[in-house]
Amino acid sequence: VVAHTPAGVEEAMYELWATEWVVQHGDLDVTGFKLSPVHRTLQGGRLDASATLGEVTAAFADLRADADLAAMYRRAAQAWSNEGLAGDAGSPTAGSSEATVALPDTSQVPCMAIYKAFETDAKLMRALLRARLFAGTLSAGSGSSQVTLRRAESLESSMVHSIPLGNRTPLVSMKLTQGHEEAFFAKNRPRTRVKARELLCGPGPMKDTRPAWTEDGPVEPKRLALWGDLVEACAEENNLPTQQRGLFVGISAVFHAASEAKCDGLVLERDDFIERLERRRDELVAEGSKAGRALSNITLVLGLVRTVLHRSALIVCKRKWKIACRGEETADFLATWTLGFYLKQTGVLNGHVEGAAA
User: Each residue of 274-323: pLDDT tens digit?
Assistant: First the structure.
């Protein structure tokens, strides 16, 4: 037996696979989500038209949720019947229960009734988010930060981008190696070079870095702003992707920043997320709080989010996911590389845990 611990790109890919799986099968709160016009494609987008079950499953085939789509279609037909909108003899009888409604594939249900039933089905909304909106992960650690972009055509072709800055970078002293020289002081990264020298080194020969502030001490607003400038300069000059749309999941230290701002677990638009983190950062600074690492982390995450996400993007930061296993039972899952490794190696990446609802 040869022990193997993935690192770098391999670790990021396993985390991405784990995250995609828990987005669909976990307890992501989709309350308030609506189907946008881009997803209302039945009968060419005509809202006054009707559709068969076969047309519904074809339109949403990428969700890989045919059984859930069929159940949703039956509920839509039942609701339509109960509202007294069904007029033909082939429609389900008013007052019949969902369990007794048996619709042939040729039955017609109004598209608006289908969309309404779809939007109230949490499992289908999560499947839609996973298949069409989930765009990747944002993560940060003590010494580096990463953006992993999901490619819908194949997870294998997904891309990992990173910068050599983490939430402990401004908190510790480091002997400068060739790697540091290339990361912070290369001539082709002039903005990063200037900001890094000012924050981490100061005047004189550059042999090592110095802490910009202590982990358990207050932070001068000027130095905190300089740290934010360094993050954004490094992200730009290392060609981190920008203007990314869709739903991103914040993991590792990105989750901890959201937790500090009390917005973890919420699906938020980019600017709302930024506002909440900025508010918490400003509170900590105003209090003179001895939260040097929390401030370093929040500022790092703000720089990443501003650089990478388009203003229309969504982000949710979540660490622990509840997955239905058997009946009413649930189990807690962490979207770590170990889960991704298991899902990949067992071939159930697109499936579900034993006994779980897909």
Answer: 999 999 999 999 988 789 999 999 999 999 999 999 999 999 999 888 88
- From CA 13, how far away is CA 34, in angstroms rounded? 30
Dihedral pair phi/psi, residue 317, rounded to 5°: -110, 115
On whether the CB atoms of residues 211 and 296 are closer than 8 A, the answer is no
Please report which residue ranges of the chain form alpha helices under DSSP H.
8-25, 53-59, 66-82, 111-119, 122-128, 178-184, 190-196, 221-237, 253-260, 270-287, 292-308, 337-346
Instruction: Give the integer Cα–Cα distance in Å for 349 and 331.
Output: 17
309: DSSP letter: B
Can you spell out the DSSP letters for 256-269?
A: HHHHHTT-TT--EE
- How far CA 72 is from CA of 55, 58, 104, 122, in Å, comes to 13, 14, 14, 11
Residue 145: CB atoms within 10 A of its CB come to: 28
Which of 271, 9, 274, 29 has its CA nearest to residue 149?
A: 9
Q: What angle do CA 243, 245, 247 make, to 5 degrees?
A: 135
What does the pLDDT read at residue 4?
Answer: 61
In the Cβ-directed half-sphere of 322, how many Cα atoms lie within 13 Å? Answer: 9
Q: Determine which helix (DSSP H) or strand (DSSP E) holds 139, and give its type and residue range.
A: strand 134-140
**What are the pLDDT digits (tens) for 66-101?**
999 999 999 999 888 887 644 443 444 444 444 455
The torsion angles phi and psi of 294, rounded to 5 degrees, stand at -60, -40
Which tens digits make up the pLDDT trace of 239-284? 999 999 999 999 999 999 999 999 999 999 999 999 999 999 999 9
Q: Half-sphere exposure (CA, 13 Å, Cβ side) for 30?
A: 24
Distance CA 162, CA 57 (A): 39
Which residues are within 8 A (CB) of 130 and not within 5 positions of it... i.e. 6 or more apart? 20, 23, 24, 63
